[in-house]
Amino acid sequence: xxxxxxxxxxxxxxxxxxxxxxxxxxxxxxxxxxxxxxxxxxxxxxxxxxxxxxxxxxxxxxxxxxxxxxxxxxxxxxxxxxxxxxxxxxxxxxxxxxxxxxxxxxxxxxxxxxxxxxxxxxxxxxxxxxxxxxxxxxxxxxxxxxxxxxxxxxxxxxxxxxxxxxxxxxxxxxxxxxxxxxxxxxxxxxxxxxxxxxxxxxxxxxxxxxxxxxxxxxxxxxxxxxxxxxxxxxxxxxxxxxxxxxxxxxxxxxxxxxxxxxxxxxxxxxxxxxxxxxxxxxxxxxxxxxxxxxxxxxxxxxxxxxxxxxxxxxxxxxxxxxxxxxxxxxxxxxxxxxxxxxxxxxxxxxxxxxxxxxxxxxxxxxxxxxxxxxxxxxxxxxxxxxxxxxxxxxxxxxxxxxxxxxxxxxxxxxxxxxxxxxxxxxxxxxxxxxxxxxxxx
Length: 441
Fold this sequence. Notes:
Elements: H1 4-8, H2 13-26, H3 45-48, H4 51-60, E1 63-66, E2 71-74, H5 77-84, E3 90-91, H6 104-110, H7 127-136, H8 141-145, H9 148-162, E4 167-169, H10 170-175, H11 177-187, H12 194-209, H13 217-240, H14 246-250, H15 262-294, H16 298-304, H17 309-319, E5 326-330, E6 334-336, E7 339-341, E8 346-349, H18 351-354, H19 389-406, E9 411-412, E10 420-422, E11 427-429, E12 433-435
Parallel strand pairs: 2-8
Antiparallel strand pairs: 1-2, 3-5, 4-12, 5-8, 6-7, 9-12, 10-11
Helix pairs in contact: 6-13, 9-11, 9-19, 11-15, 12-13, 12-15, 13-15, 15-17, 15-19
Protein backbone atom coordinates (compact mmCIF):
# COMPACT_ATOMS: atom_id res chain seq x y z
CA UNK A 1 0.00 0.00 0.00
CA UNK A 2 1.28 3.46 -0.88
CA UNK A 3 2.07 5.89 1.90
CA UNK A 4 0.75 9.43 1.96
CA UNK A 5 4.23 10.59 0.97
CA UNK A 6 4.61 8.22 -1.96
CA UNK A 7 1.15 8.86 -3.33
CA UNK A 8 1.70 12.57 -3.95
CA UNK A 9 5.40 12.65 -4.72
CA UNK A 10 6.21 13.57 -8.31
CA UNK A 11 9.09 12.62 -10.54
CA UNK A 12 12.47 14.09 -9.72
CA UNK A 13 14.56 16.08 -12.21
CA UNK A 14 16.48 13.09 -13.53
CA UNK A 15 13.29 11.17 -14.21
CA UNK A 16 11.74 14.21 -15.87
CA UNK A 17 14.79 14.54 -18.12
CA UNK A 18 14.44 10.93 -19.19
CA UNK A 19 10.77 11.50 -19.97
CA UNK A 20 11.63 14.59 -22.05
CA UNK A 21 14.23 12.65 -23.98
CA UNK A 22 11.78 9.85 -24.78
CA UNK A 23 9.15 12.41 -25.74
CA UNK A 24 11.48 14.22 -28.11
CA UNK A 25 12.29 10.94 -29.79
CA UNK A 26 8.59 10.38 -30.46
CA UNK A 27 7.89 13.81 -31.96
CA UNK A 28 9.58 13.49 -35.34
CA UNK A 29 6.65 12.35 -37.47
CA UNK A 30 4.14 14.89 -36.18
CA UNK A 31 2.80 17.75 -38.30
CA UNK A 32 3.30 20.34 -35.53
CA UNK A 33 5.57 18.46 -33.11
CA UNK A 34 5.97 21.24 -30.54
CA UNK A 35 2.47 22.70 -30.53
CA UNK A 36 1.67 21.11 -27.17
CA UNK A 37 4.53 23.03 -25.53
CA UNK A 38 2.45 26.21 -25.82
CA UNK A 39 -0.23 24.96 -23.44
CA UNK A 40 -0.50 26.48 -19.97
CA UNK A 41 -3.64 25.36 -18.10
CA UNK A 42 -2.92 27.56 -15.08
CA UNK A 43 -2.65 31.10 -16.48
CA UNK A 44 -3.16 33.22 -19.58
CA UNK A 45 -5.40 32.75 -22.62
CA UNK A 46 -5.79 29.00 -22.16
CA UNK A 47 -7.64 29.69 -18.92
CA UNK A 48 -9.87 32.39 -20.37
CA UNK A 49 -10.78 30.34 -23.47
CA UNK A 50 -8.75 27.23 -24.31
CA UNK A 51 -10.98 26.10 -27.19
CA UNK A 52 -9.27 27.87 -30.13
CA UNK A 53 -6.02 26.19 -29.05
CA UNK A 54 -7.78 22.84 -28.60
CA UNK A 55 -9.13 23.11 -32.15
CA UNK A 56 -5.60 23.63 -33.42
CA UNK A 57 -4.39 20.66 -31.40
CA UNK A 58 -7.10 18.38 -32.79
CA UNK A 59 -6.23 19.37 -36.33
CA UNK A 60 -2.44 19.59 -36.28
CA UNK A 61 -1.13 17.64 -33.27
CA UNK A 62 -3.83 15.51 -31.62
CA UNK A 63 -1.22 13.87 -29.38
CA UNK A 64 1.39 16.46 -28.50
CA UNK A 65 3.98 16.75 -25.71
CA UNK A 66 4.04 19.48 -23.08
CA UNK A 67 7.42 19.62 -21.31
CA UNK A 68 6.19 21.95 -18.54
CA UNK A 69 3.71 19.29 -17.43
CA UNK A 70 5.75 16.30 -18.54
CA UNK A 71 2.59 15.01 -20.23
CA UNK A 72 1.19 14.25 -23.66
CA UNK A 73 -1.93 16.24 -24.51
CA UNK A 74 -4.64 14.05 -26.04
CA UNK A 75 -7.27 16.23 -27.68
CA UNK A 76 -9.53 14.13 -29.95
CA UNK A 77 -12.69 12.44 -28.71
CA UNK A 78 -11.99 9.03 -30.27
CA UNK A 79 -8.43 8.93 -28.92
CA UNK A 80 -9.59 9.91 -25.42
CA UNK A 81 -12.28 7.20 -25.46
CA UNK A 82 -9.74 4.66 -26.70
CA UNK A 83 -7.55 5.40 -23.68
CA UNK A 84 -10.43 5.37 -21.19
CA UNK A 85 -11.66 2.01 -22.42
CA UNK A 86 -8.26 0.34 -21.98
CA UNK A 87 -7.24 0.58 -18.29
CA UNK A 88 -4.77 -2.28 -18.71
CA UNK A 89 -2.52 -0.21 -21.00
CA UNK A 90 -3.47 3.26 -19.71
CA UNK A 91 -3.32 3.25 -15.92
CA UNK A 92 -4.88 5.60 -13.36
CA UNK A 93 -2.68 4.39 -10.52
CA UNK A 94 -0.29 7.36 -10.27
CA UNK A 95 -2.90 10.06 -10.69
CA UNK A 96 -1.67 11.79 -7.53
CA UNK A 97 1.69 12.46 -9.13
CA UNK A 98 0.66 15.55 -11.05
CA UNK A 99 0.91 18.55 -8.79
CA UNK A 100 3.73 20.13 -6.87
CA UNK A 101 7.25 18.80 -6.51
CA UNK A 102 7.11 18.37 -2.77
CA UNK A 103 9.88 19.63 -0.51
CA UNK A 104 11.48 17.46 2.20
CA UNK A 105 9.70 19.53 4.87
CA UNK A 106 6.35 18.94 3.15
CA UNK A 107 6.99 15.21 2.90
CA UNK A 108 7.81 15.14 6.59
CA UNK A 109 4.47 16.75 7.44
CA UNK A 110 2.56 14.34 5.20
CA UNK A 111 4.24 11.40 6.91
CA UNK A 112 2.25 12.29 10.05
CA UNK A 113 -0.98 11.39 8.25
CA UNK A 114 -2.57 8.08 7.35
CA UNK A 115 -1.39 5.99 4.41
CA UNK A 116 -3.06 7.34 1.28
CA UNK A 117 -4.84 4.23 0.04
CA UNK A 118 -6.18 3.60 -3.43
CA UNK A 119 -9.30 5.52 -4.35
CA UNK A 120 -11.78 5.18 -7.20
CA UNK A 121 -10.03 7.85 -9.21
CA UNK A 122 -6.47 6.53 -8.97
CA UNK A 123 -6.85 2.75 -9.07
CA UNK A 124 -7.04 0.07 -11.74
CA UNK A 125 -8.76 -3.32 -11.75
CA UNK A 126 -8.95 -5.47 -9.73
CA UNK A 127 -8.53 -2.92 -6.88
CA UNK A 128 -10.85 -0.47 -8.62
CA UNK A 129 -13.50 -3.15 -9.15
CA UNK A 130 -13.56 -3.92 -5.42
CA UNK A 131 -13.69 -0.24 -4.40
CA UNK A 132 -16.42 0.55 -6.90
CA UNK A 133 -18.55 -2.27 -5.54
CA UNK A 134 -18.10 -1.26 -1.90
CA UNK A 135 -18.53 2.48 -2.43
CA UNK A 136 -21.32 2.07 -4.95
CA UNK A 137 -23.57 0.81 -2.16
CA UNK A 138 -23.71 4.37 -0.86
CA UNK A 139 -24.77 5.82 -4.23
CA UNK A 140 -27.60 3.51 -5.17
CA UNK A 141 -30.56 4.93 -7.08
CA UNK A 142 -32.68 4.65 -3.93
CA UNK A 143 -30.21 6.57 -1.78
CA UNK A 144 -29.83 9.31 -4.42
CA UNK A 145 -33.61 9.65 -4.81
CA UNK A 146 -33.90 10.06 -1.03
CA UNK A 147 -31.82 13.25 -1.31
CA UNK A 148 -34.49 15.10 -3.30
CA UNK A 149 -36.17 16.43 -0.15
CA UNK A 150 -32.96 17.68 1.52
CA UNK A 151 -31.75 19.24 -1.74
CA UNK A 152 -35.03 21.08 -2.19
CA UNK A 153 -35.14 22.26 1.44
CA UNK A 154 -31.57 23.63 1.38
CA UNK A 155 -32.15 25.25 -2.03
CA UNK A 156 -35.28 27.04 -0.86
CA UNK A 157 -33.55 28.29 2.29
CA UNK A 158 -30.60 29.67 0.32
CA UNK A 159 -32.69 31.36 -2.36
CA UNK A 160 -35.04 32.96 0.17
CA UNK A 161 -32.01 34.54 1.84
CA UNK A 162 -31.40 36.76 -1.20
CA UNK A 163 -34.64 36.69 -3.28
CA UNK A 164 -35.93 40.06 -1.95
CA UNK A 165 -32.57 41.78 -2.33
CA UNK A 166 -32.40 42.12 -6.12
CA UNK A 167 -28.76 41.10 -6.48
CA UNK A 168 -26.50 38.21 -5.49
CA UNK A 169 -23.38 36.26 -6.31
CA UNK A 170 -24.88 32.90 -7.25
CA UNK A 171 -21.58 31.11 -6.77
CA UNK A 172 -20.81 32.17 -3.21
CA UNK A 173 -24.46 32.35 -2.07
CA UNK A 174 -25.96 29.30 -3.80
CA UNK A 175 -23.76 27.14 -6.04
CA UNK A 176 -21.16 26.62 -3.31
CA UNK A 177 -23.22 26.16 -0.11
CA UNK A 178 -25.87 23.89 -1.69
CA UNK A 179 -23.70 20.89 -2.67
CA UNK A 180 -21.53 21.32 0.42
CA UNK A 181 -24.52 21.13 2.75
CA UNK A 182 -26.06 18.25 0.81
CA UNK A 183 -22.92 16.12 0.81
CA UNK A 184 -22.17 16.93 4.47
CA UNK A 185 -25.65 15.79 5.45
CA UNK A 186 -25.49 12.70 3.26
CA UNK A 187 -22.06 11.65 4.55
CA UNK A 188 -22.82 12.53 8.17
CA UNK A 189 -20.59 15.53 8.84
CA UNK A 190 -21.79 18.31 11.21
CA UNK A 191 -22.94 21.37 9.27
CA UNK A 192 -21.07 23.66 11.65
CA UNK A 193 -17.80 22.20 10.32
CA UNK A 194 -18.54 23.42 6.77
CA UNK A 195 -15.95 26.22 6.80
CA UNK A 196 -13.20 23.86 7.96
CA UNK A 197 -14.18 21.27 5.34
CA UNK A 198 -14.07 23.92 2.62
CA UNK A 199 -10.61 25.08 3.66
CA UNK A 200 -9.23 21.54 3.90
CA UNK A 201 -10.67 20.60 0.52
CA UNK A 202 -9.28 23.72 -1.17
CA UNK A 203 -5.83 23.06 0.29
CA UNK A 204 -5.96 19.40 -0.77
CA UNK A 205 -6.84 20.23 -4.38
CA UNK A 206 -4.24 22.98 -4.57
CA UNK A 207 -1.45 20.68 -3.41
CA UNK A 208 -2.43 17.77 -5.65
CA UNK A 209 -3.56 19.47 -8.86
CA UNK A 210 -1.54 22.70 -9.15
CA UNK A 211 2.09 23.78 -8.89
CA UNK A 212 2.82 25.24 -5.45
CA UNK A 213 6.18 26.84 -4.46
CA UNK A 214 8.09 24.85 -1.83
CA UNK A 215 7.73 27.53 0.84
CA UNK A 216 3.91 27.46 0.54
CA UNK A 217 3.55 23.68 0.73
CA UNK A 218 3.89 22.79 4.45
CA UNK A 219 0.64 24.55 5.54
CA UNK A 220 -1.24 22.72 2.77
CA UNK A 221 0.24 19.42 3.88
CA UNK A 222 -0.68 20.18 7.49
CA UNK A 223 -4.22 20.93 6.38
CA UNK A 224 -4.50 17.55 4.64
CA UNK A 225 -3.18 15.70 7.69
CA UNK A 226 -5.69 17.54 9.90
CA UNK A 227 -8.46 16.60 7.47
CA UNK A 228 -7.43 12.93 7.59
CA UNK A 229 -7.50 12.81 11.40
CA UNK A 230 -10.88 14.59 11.45
CA UNK A 231 -12.41 11.97 9.15
CA UNK A 232 -10.80 9.14 11.10
CA UNK A 233 -12.52 10.37 14.27
CA UNK A 234 -15.88 10.43 12.48
CA UNK A 235 -15.35 6.87 11.24
CA UNK A 236 -14.51 5.55 14.70
CA UNK A 237 -17.53 7.34 16.17
CA UNK A 238 -19.84 5.66 13.63
CA UNK A 239 -18.30 2.27 14.32
CA UNK A 240 -19.25 2.73 17.97
CA UNK A 241 -22.65 4.40 17.36
CA UNK A 242 -24.02 4.00 13.81
CA UNK A 243 -26.41 6.60 12.42
CA UNK A 244 -28.48 6.99 9.27
CA UNK A 245 -25.66 8.41 7.16
CA UNK A 246 -23.15 7.35 4.53
CA UNK A 247 -20.23 6.90 6.92
CA UNK A 248 -22.22 4.42 9.01
CA UNK A 249 -23.23 2.59 5.85
CA UNK A 250 -19.69 2.36 4.49
CA UNK A 251 -18.04 1.10 7.69
CA UNK A 252 -20.15 -2.07 7.56
CA UNK A 253 -19.26 -5.19 5.58
CA UNK A 254 -21.12 -6.01 2.39
CA UNK A 255 -23.04 -9.18 1.56
CA UNK A 256 -19.81 -10.93 0.59
CA UNK A 257 -18.16 -10.12 3.91
CA UNK A 258 -15.85 -7.45 2.45
CA UNK A 259 -15.23 -4.07 4.04
CA UNK A 260 -13.20 -0.94 3.39
CA UNK A 261 -10.02 -0.45 5.43
CA UNK A 262 -9.57 2.70 7.53
CA UNK A 263 -7.17 4.33 5.01
CA UNK A 264 -9.60 3.47 2.18
CA UNK A 265 -12.47 5.00 4.11
CA UNK A 266 -10.48 8.16 4.85
CA UNK A 267 -9.52 8.80 1.22
CA UNK A 268 -13.02 7.89 0.00
CA UNK A 269 -14.75 10.23 2.45
CA UNK A 270 -12.21 13.07 2.57
CA UNK A 271 -10.90 13.04 -0.98
CA UNK A 272 -13.69 11.61 -3.10
CA UNK A 273 -16.92 12.56 -1.32
CA UNK A 274 -16.24 15.70 0.69
CA UNK A 275 -13.67 17.26 -1.65
CA UNK A 276 -14.68 16.11 -5.14
CA UNK A 277 -18.29 15.62 -4.04
CA UNK A 278 -18.94 19.34 -3.79
CA UNK A 279 -16.21 21.01 -5.85
CA UNK A 280 -17.37 19.70 -9.22
CA UNK A 281 -21.07 20.14 -8.48
CA UNK A 282 -20.51 23.77 -7.48
CA UNK A 283 -18.73 24.33 -10.78
CA UNK A 284 -21.51 22.59 -12.73
CA UNK A 285 -24.26 24.69 -11.14
CA UNK A 286 -22.40 27.92 -11.81
CA UNK A 287 -21.59 27.02 -15.41
CA UNK A 288 -25.21 26.03 -16.11
CA UNK A 289 -26.56 29.36 -14.87
CA UNK A 290 -23.83 31.29 -16.62
CA UNK A 291 -24.71 29.68 -19.97
CA UNK A 292 -28.45 30.14 -19.38
CA UNK A 293 -27.87 33.89 -18.90
CA UNK A 294 -25.32 34.36 -21.68
CA UNK A 295 -27.61 32.98 -24.39
CA UNK A 296 -30.14 35.68 -25.45
CA UNK A 297 -33.68 34.82 -24.39
CA UNK A 298 -32.77 31.44 -22.93
CA UNK A 299 -33.72 32.22 -19.32
CA UNK A 300 -37.27 33.08 -20.35
CA UNK A 301 -37.46 30.06 -22.61
CA UNK A 302 -36.45 27.81 -19.72
CA UNK A 303 -39.10 29.40 -17.51
CA UNK A 304 -41.74 28.59 -20.09
CA UNK A 305 -40.56 25.05 -20.84
CA UNK A 306 -39.03 23.23 -17.87
CA UNK A 307 -38.43 20.11 -19.97
CA UNK A 308 -35.42 22.00 -21.34
CA UNK A 309 -33.64 22.14 -17.96
CA UNK A 310 -32.06 18.67 -18.32
CA UNK A 311 -30.95 19.72 -21.82
CA UNK A 312 -29.29 22.81 -20.34
CA UNK A 313 -27.38 20.66 -17.87
CA UNK A 314 -26.13 18.17 -20.47
CA UNK A 315 -25.25 20.82 -23.03
CA UNK A 316 -23.30 22.75 -20.38
CA UNK A 317 -21.43 19.58 -19.45
CA UNK A 318 -20.49 19.23 -23.11
CA UNK A 319 -19.85 22.86 -24.05
CA UNK A 320 -18.06 24.14 -20.92
CA UNK A 321 -16.85 20.98 -19.26
CA UNK A 322 -16.23 21.16 -15.51
CA UNK A 323 -14.19 17.95 -15.69
CA UNK A 324 -11.60 19.60 -17.88
CA UNK A 325 -9.15 16.72 -18.12
CA UNK A 326 -7.82 13.55 -16.58
CA UNK A 327 -4.47 11.78 -16.31
CA UNK A 328 -3.41 8.33 -17.47
CA UNK A 329 -0.01 6.60 -17.67
CA UNK A 330 1.01 3.99 -20.24
CA UNK A 331 1.90 0.60 -18.79
CA UNK A 332 3.66 -0.55 -21.97
CA UNK A 333 4.85 0.89 -25.27
CA UNK A 334 1.78 2.02 -27.25
CA UNK A 335 0.85 3.96 -30.38
CA UNK A 336 -1.86 6.60 -30.18
CA UNK A 337 -2.98 8.67 -33.18
CA UNK A 338 0.17 7.59 -35.00
CA UNK A 339 2.48 8.70 -32.17
CA UNK A 340 4.69 6.09 -30.51
CA UNK A 341 4.53 6.47 -26.73
CA UNK A 342 6.94 4.51 -24.54
CA UNK A 343 5.98 2.80 -21.32
CA UNK A 344 5.62 5.32 -18.49
CA UNK A 345 4.36 8.17 -20.70
CA UNK A 346 1.86 10.38 -18.91
CA UNK A 347 -1.21 11.56 -20.81
CA UNK A 348 -3.44 14.53 -20.10
CA UNK A 349 -6.79 13.62 -21.63
CA UNK A 350 -8.42 16.92 -22.56
CA UNK A 351 -12.09 16.10 -21.92
CA UNK A 352 -13.15 19.66 -22.75
CA UNK A 353 -11.53 19.37 -26.17
CA UNK A 354 -12.96 15.93 -26.87
CA UNK A 355 -16.50 17.04 -26.09
CA UNK A 356 -16.27 19.73 -28.81
CA UNK A 357 -14.53 17.53 -31.39
CA UNK A 358 -16.11 18.12 -34.87
CA UNK A 359 -15.82 14.38 -35.47
CA UNK A 360 -18.29 13.96 -32.60
CA UNK A 361 -20.43 17.00 -33.37
CA UNK A 362 -19.89 19.20 -36.46
CA UNK A 363 -21.07 22.36 -34.69
CA UNK A 364 -19.49 21.55 -31.34
CA UNK A 365 -18.39 25.15 -30.70
CA UNK A 366 -22.03 26.24 -30.78
CA UNK A 367 -24.13 26.10 -27.58
CA UNK A 368 -27.49 24.55 -28.52
CA UNK A 369 -30.19 23.90 -25.94
CA UNK A 370 -32.08 21.78 -28.46
CA UNK A 371 -29.63 18.90 -28.17
CA UNK A 372 -31.65 16.33 -26.25
CA UNK A 373 -28.85 13.89 -25.37
CA UNK A 374 -25.50 15.39 -26.36
CA UNK A 375 -22.56 13.02 -26.14
CA UNK A 376 -19.84 14.40 -23.87
CA UNK A 377 -17.04 13.48 -21.48
CA UNK A 378 -18.27 15.66 -18.61
CA UNK A 379 -18.50 12.70 -16.23
CA UNK A 380 -15.75 10.62 -17.80
CA UNK A 381 -16.19 7.32 -19.57
CA UNK A 382 -15.67 3.63 -18.94
CA UNK A 383 -14.98 2.10 -15.53
CA UNK A 384 -14.16 5.52 -14.05
CA UNK A 385 -17.47 7.16 -15.00
CA UNK A 386 -18.32 9.51 -12.11
CA UNK A 387 -20.11 7.63 -9.34
CA UNK A 388 -21.76 10.86 -8.17
CA UNK A 389 -23.18 11.88 -11.56
CA UNK A 390 -26.83 11.13 -10.66
CA UNK A 391 -26.57 13.23 -7.49
CA UNK A 392 -24.98 16.15 -9.37
CA UNK A 393 -27.69 16.05 -12.03
CA UNK A 394 -30.42 15.95 -9.39
CA UNK A 395 -28.98 18.96 -7.56
CA UNK A 396 -28.64 20.90 -10.81
CA UNK A 397 -32.24 20.22 -11.85
CA UNK A 398 -33.77 21.14 -8.49
CA UNK A 399 -31.66 24.27 -7.97
CA UNK A 400 -32.12 25.55 -11.53
CA UNK A 401 -35.90 25.09 -11.44
CA UNK A 402 -36.09 26.95 -8.14
CA UNK A 403 -34.18 29.91 -9.58
CA UNK A 404 -36.50 29.90 -12.58
CA UNK A 405 -39.48 29.95 -10.21
CA UNK A 406 -38.23 32.75 -8.01
CA UNK A 407 -36.21 35.10 -10.25
CA UNK A 408 -38.21 35.79 -13.38
CA UNK A 409 -35.98 38.46 -14.96
CA UNK A 410 -32.59 37.20 -13.78
CA UNK A 411 -29.69 38.78 -15.66
CA UNK A 412 -25.92 39.13 -15.44
CA UNK A 413 -24.45 42.34 -14.11
CA UNK A 414 -23.40 44.73 -16.88
CA UNK A 415 -19.68 43.89 -16.88
CA UNK A 416 -19.43 40.36 -15.48
CA UNK A 417 -16.14 39.12 -14.06
CA UNK A 418 -16.48 35.38 -13.62
CA UNK A 419 -13.03 34.80 -12.10
CA UNK A 420 -12.40 31.68 -14.16
CA UNK A 421 -9.88 29.24 -12.70
CA UNK A 422 -8.52 26.01 -14.07
CA UNK A 423 -6.39 23.14 -12.85
CA UNK A 424 -5.32 20.10 -14.81
CA UNK A 425 -8.65 18.45 -14.07
CA UNK A 426 -11.30 21.05 -13.09
CA UNK A 427 -12.51 24.29 -14.66
CA UNK A 428 -14.75 26.61 -12.65
CA UNK A 429 -15.84 30.18 -12.08
CA UNK A 430 -15.53 31.96 -8.75
CA UNK A 431 -18.31 34.52 -9.24
CA UNK A 432 -21.67 34.82 -10.97
CA UNK A 433 -23.00 38.24 -10.00
CA UNK A 434 -26.59 38.76 -11.09
CA UNK A 435 -29.47 41.17 -10.65
CA UNK A 436 -33.27 40.94 -10.92
CA UNK A 437 -36.41 42.79 -9.92
CA UNK A 438 -36.87 41.98 -6.21
CA UNK A 439 -39.96 40.06 -5.12
CA UNK A 440 -42.90 42.37 -4.32
CA UNK A 441 -41.59 45.44 -6.16
